[in-house]
Amino acid sequence: MKKGFNVTPYEVEGNIDYGKLIREFGLEKINENVLKKIERHAGELHFMLRRGVVFAHRDLNWVLNEYEKGNKFFLYTGCGPSGPIHLGNLQMWVFTKWLQDKFNVDLWFQFTDDEKFLFKNKSYEEIQKWTYENILDVIALGLDSKKTHFLIDTKHAGIMYPEAVKIAKKITFSTIKASFGFTDSNNIGSIFYTSMQAVPAILPSVLKKKNIPCLIPLGVDQDPHFRIARDVYPKLGFHKPAIMHKIMFPPLKGIGGAMSSSKNAVIITSTDSPREVEHKIKKYAFSGGQKTTLEHRKKGGNPDVDVSYQYLKMFFEPDDKKLQQIHDDYKSGRLLTGELKEILIEKINAFLKEHQRKRELAKNKIDDFLFKP
Amino acid sequence: MKKGFNVTPYEVEGNIDYGKLIREFGLEKINENVLKKIERHAGELHFMLRRGVVFAHRDLNWVLNEYEKGNKFFLYTGCGPSGPIHLGNLQMWVFTKWLQDKFNVDLWFQFTDDEKFLFKNKSYEEIQKWTYENILDVIALGLDSKKTHFLIDTKHAGIMYPEAVKIAKKITFSTIKASFGFTDSNNIGSIFYTSMQAVPAILPSVLKKKNIPCLIPLGVDQDPHFRIARDVYPKLGFHKPAIMHKIMFPPLKGIGGAMSSSKNAVIITSTDSPREVEHKIKKYAFSGGQKTTLEHRKKGGNPDVDVSYQYLKMFFEPDDKKLQQIHDDYKSGRLLTGELKEILIEKINAFLKEHQRKRELAKNKIDDFLFKP
Predict the structure, then answer these.
(1) Which of A32, A227, B62, B322 is the most exposed place for a label (fewest CB within 10 A)?
(2) Is the model's pTM score more than 0.90?
């Protein structure tokens, strides 16, 4: 926390300066050029791209150039199953599904149950329960089972572990320490784990005996895993995967850190009822408004720090014009915080209603999605 | 090497003081009481037990008491496939087979191909080749495939890795450092590995959902893996496995250290021809004899340091009377070093002739031995 914020897969704290993060992590900012390239193939730009929610990348130009040459990439993203799915997870996956649909590519989806077991004070059985629950949420996104392959680390260890040891052989504990802030008190499974997370980026290439480009959309906190692994892949004869980085989804109480199911923070989960959503937003969503209605009408609110506005911008209001109107109305004081929250509550509940319906249907579909070696 | 010798799974050096090792490792010496107990069930005592080749144990009384109560143990031992099988390996397994035969129990045999890949400067493919080769040697021992189950770490990772992470969660890198002398420069696979070696001791219990006692015959250099793991098993609800420790098989050039396929030492391998065996023994086997025949006749030889005599004692002359005669003849000077070597060469070649015959037949039997989950 020396620099005021900290972003690793195991700790996200403070007010993240994303410009600084780009420099520190050695990322590239997503610029107009690369956006145009995406738009050329996708036919449109997802609002998360337009609005800088997906803000940085590694080797995205390369993977798009390959795509242009007819060398399709596959997508790889994942989920660490240790609790209920929250809006931050869903946001990432909604974007991932968009990529899959627009580029018509396979998606490999990893459930890192080993990781969560190794890092959390939870039993193996509890993690398995969450793996099942989270799988339902991923299927509920409406993914096509023919093009989507689920890997569950402990269930697919038979094909993953042999590749993981090849990666692990080229990573020292010094590197792990420097990247994740681990100490000698870390358990030896947690130290090994990054090599399991590295596997899906090459597994399709291994299985098809063919070097296939990979694109990983992820929350930027996951980048350290691949910063390490990208040094290793070429040594094993594989391409470095391209990466697209999403900013952290802010917690309800304010825009520092990230929404997380693990820190007893108030989060909105995929199974929350409309009343729970309403209650949480009304009670906890940090407001950029003034203390009194009178003052708000006069001075206006600050959408940049208002969590409700940020949720609309990052996830729930795809329409740029409508969003701009909300922004301007809030800033001018025309729109009160309570009214802004009502807009958001309605949006979230509409989303979750449909999600929960599909989540029920997902219970019969799990087997279709599990990768069969 | 501060204490004059060093014994870990990754380094065996110096003249090992086994009395000191017993104290340092916290082992129990195999005494008359436990020998009687073994004899009661086995009907006899293997010469390696009578002669202190298998010299120490952990919880052997417990596992034998359980056996007496009708609660059978299973055996677990293994092989690290990084090169040809040598006499030291065969010695361990001949004893293990004896245990299996006499107690009529299952044997789980682990091939630690992941370990050897992670620790050796050899390719994955090379290790796979040695795994195949070494499997032939193990089958050639004449094991019963109905009671013997091979686990190959990378092939059986599907059932092993989930158990390994449960073990790994309870072992810190500090413990690994202290036990194996690792540093931050170790690769993260090597750090994790001990949890894979720990798995077979509980895997049958996991699979049968029943806590089954386990007895591990091993070379004493492997003890550190289980010294760590034995602290973990009870936390997961399993018995601590019992262990029987064999002294290290001495290298040809002298009784310090251990025969190993990895240090460019001259070793006798399972596929050596009679001429190779003869050449190696004659040229390299350290002699306890005197410099000249005349001097030898007068002063006699020293069987305690003579490698040929030690090989006979430890492995190739089961008959106590014959061995005593050789001992006395050599000590008195009646038997010359050249003659002693001839006795050994004949014994080894007879053993290897039969072994190599069975090794050829083993090629069609591999599948019978691989564990099918």
Answers:
(1) A32
(2) yes
